Amino acid sequence: MKRVGSLGAVLIAMGLGTLAVYAQAGPGLHGPMMGGAPAGIMSPLLLLRALDLTADQHTLIQEIKTDHRAAVQDLLTQLHAAQDNLATKLFAPGTLQESQLMADTQQISQLHNQLTQEGIRVMLEIRAVLTPDQLARAAQLNQQMQSIRTQMRNLFTQAG
Question: Whole-prediction pTM value?
Answer without folding.
Answer: 0.67
